[in-house]
Amino acid sequence: MSAPQHDPKKPQSSTVPQAAPFTSKFVEAGNLKLHCLDYGIEGRPPMLCVHGGAANGHWFDFIAPGFTPDYHVRALDLRGHGDSEHMDPPAYFYKDYASDLNQVVEELDLRDFVLMGHSMGGAVSLLYAATYPGRVKTLIIIDSTVNLSAERIAKLRDVGSRPGSSYASQEELISRYRLRPGESQAAPEVVHHIAAYSSHQTADGSWRHKFDRNVYATREISDGRPNWNRIKVPVLLVKGDRSDRLSPEVYADVKARCPQAELVEVSKSDHHVTLDNPSEFIMKVRPFLQKQ
User: Fold this and answer.
1) Taking the CA of residue 240 as centre, how many other CA atoms within 13 Å lie in the half-sphere pointing to its CB?
2) Domain definitions of the chain by residue range
3) Which class does domain 23-147+221-290 fall in?
């Protein structure tokens, strides 16, 4: 455990979103040690946040301050991401992530909790809620279709099969860091913050992105849509207004399978909604939570 931390590289000005202080912890998930950011506050209803592919828990740093007054907020690093353990041989299927999530929930004894997942983390959260019912009270899925096309999967596998870039310094990596996919609307200071926490120094002294590239190289073709048929808890879908992932057709399919699902749209946002417009994200999500 460590003391609450902020971005160690660059202080933020008052004109951009402020990242929440956090405590860095590790949680046992079977034989795995998974890293978790704990934003506090003990004794309040739990909220667990799950990031997307090649990301990490810091994707929630800028929205956590909007929920800690009412919730004990945590963000998990999935296996192969952030400061969690990598798998050798690779084991990065949705069922693996969902099983890890179940073990973390049991280890932390989370009950009646809010589960929030972005992109791939949304697919993982949906699978968890469908496979391990009983503990999730409310499900929030952020800009996730849970059904990537074969073409998109092929592109991800192609990216993952390459060795990836290496940088002489962390400063060089940060300066060249970009949020993908989509055209992120995040403030430069926000991107800087994410880049600092998404990089690590290797044994040879170079700097690389902090995730196992096998996460992409072994990405499976999986249709998560039938999982919606098994979801009985309140559901909120959050769409970036510049993203096409949660299209009207996708939402109509979700509603047909899960009639209680609601949709909100966050302006000035592409795929990385929690980074592009965290203030409006909080403003759009809080009313949904308050009525549950």
Assistant:
1) 27
2) 23-147+221-290
3) alpha beta
